[in-house]
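Lab intake sheet, docking and co-folding queue.

SAMPLE TYPE: protein with bound small molecule
LIGAND NAME: zinc ion
LIGAND FORMAT: SMILES
REQUESTED OUTPUT: full 3D complex as structure tokens
PRIORITY: normal
SUBMITTED BY: R.K., bench team

The fields below were copied directly from the construct record.
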Amino acid sequence: MSPPTRKVRLVGDAEYRDQAEANLGQPGDASLILRGRPRAIVMACPDGCGETLVVNLDGRVGKAWRFDMRGGLTLYPSVWREGGCGSHFIVWRGHILWCGRFERNNLEPDYDAAIEQFVFDAMDVEKPRDAVQIADAIDELIWDVNRAANRLVRRGDAKSWKADDRWVFTRSV
Ligand SMILES: [Zn+2]
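RESULT FIELD (auto-filled):
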């Protein structure tokens, strides 16, 4: 049992799962399965339990995560291993942010306040939009948009509330 990690290390692409698993060494190591298109991320569970996680990226074969490689690996939504060790974490620009256990020492990626204006511009005064819709409109990462939108809310420039199990935002001015 090794300690939990807070970083993802990409260890090279693979065509098939066994090949991807062979690439993995330490907790947080991740290998992209690429066959014509991105298929899955295979990851050594970052809590150090020794298990391997498979995160599906291919919407044709079931629930799929969005992934992005800008500034390191990003996955959306969070990864939650409901059986076994129960690890639950966010992968954001190569960082692992733990949900629940271990979250005390979470370290978010650097913040670039320049995104706030784009997020604000993509919000409407009346029509609520969630972070996914805003991120798609301005081609930014959903986690980055979510952080910027919540800062706008804290400053009073935007409002947010929960609608149908997701947080939505409008401009307040
Ligand atoms: Zn684990």
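REVIEWER NOTE: The CA atoms of residues 22 and 31 lie 9 Å apart.
SIGN-OFF: pending second check by T.M.
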